[in-house]
């Protein structure tokens, strides 16, 4: 630490809480209760954090450097968001998404759409290891099917997010799964095996809820057979369907499986979709590029929307790079707060205080969950939300005789799958924008994502599913044997 940094004031615990509590209060009251725009609330939170940094002695240039550093790390996410907009527009142009919606409406009953959405995205995400790719391909198509069936879009989006993050959490191809194992000093397959204690019960619980919801009145009225028939007929009349229209999502999923760079794979899928739209739909290259930039519009067809029920234009008119601009603004505001907060060191002070009050395994698990969620919400950075708690709590787990795979499991339970449920994180923004449903609306239905936290807490306080280090397990076994001998001798 240089002399200039030594001159900065250190925050007390109370002052360290101010930016975090202010941000949470503004978002809960302003966004959740008063339904205010989230962007100015995040900017106001950033102003509070920057004010505290200025009081500590940091200059405006230093605060801006911290914010710019955070935004620089967010640029890949921003580029992916832009590409997703182009991808949706061109896939509408080619007929790729309408083709999947067409067959979904023909094959999936309204009673089974939630469970189908959950299972299909789960399978794709496990095979590819990517939640974003799963939601951006089959997830978008399934949302179209749900819209056609007049099923609750919030419920459908929750099922898609649950399935997408099921694979992101346990797939050996997932970067977050590998990263969690690395930062917690455990092996990948031990980490995945241990995750099953919380993930499988969450999966079963979600599947049961989706199955029951589909066969009850929980989702409201569903589409009549005639309405579904009208949509199928309209899609069949607008597009020339061919199985080759599935090539763009196949290309994206192949790139995910082979760990190819995401942005080139997505842009290649956009280009392929434009070519397919020209070949099969008879549209022009100018219209293809317009769909890429501004989004697809049904008026691109010669017949337009004449004689077509209103549900079809609502389903098809979407996408385009420009459709992501408001989303990108939200990312900028979120990372402005994260950058200003980082320079104050407030998170480290809060977390270090937490470490002083931990006395039991249950408290340690609870503290790890709380810290991971706090870091996820405060930094909007999924990787940092795994790294920071792992570094802070690793020694505490070892001191209590706990295998570090407990730590890797807990940070995944509270980090990887919770990130898409926070509206201002990059994952939350991506899911809400891609699926067309606000985060708070889909949150109650994303059962797979949050149920694992409750199982983790139950295991922590009961001792079930908690792995001990070999030495601790051996010592406990010897102690049990000694107690048994003592009882026998006493008799």
From TrEMBL:
Q: Domain (Na+/H+ antiporter NhaC-like C-terminal): give its ranges.
A: 163-464
List all membrane-crossing ranges: 12-34, 41-58, 78-105, 112-132, 138-166, 195-218, 238-257, 264-283, 322-349, 361-379, 445-467
Topology with regard to the membrane? Multi-pass membrane protein
Sample GO molecular function, one term: antiporter activity
Keyword Acetylation in the entry? The reply is: no
Q: Which UniProt keywords apply?
A: Antiport, Cell membrane, Membrane, Transmembrane, Transmembrane helix, Transport
Organism domain of life: Bacteria
**Name of the protein:** Transporter (NhaC family)
Main localization, broad class: membrane
Provide the family line: Belongs to the NhaC Na(+)/H(+) (TC 2.A.35) antiporter family.
Q: Which subcellular locations apply to this protein?
A: Cell membrane
Question: Does the UniProt entry include the keyword Transmembrane?
Answer: yes
Pfam family of this protein, just one?
Answer: Na_H_antiporter
Q: In the UniProt record, which is one GO cellular component term?
A: plasma membrane
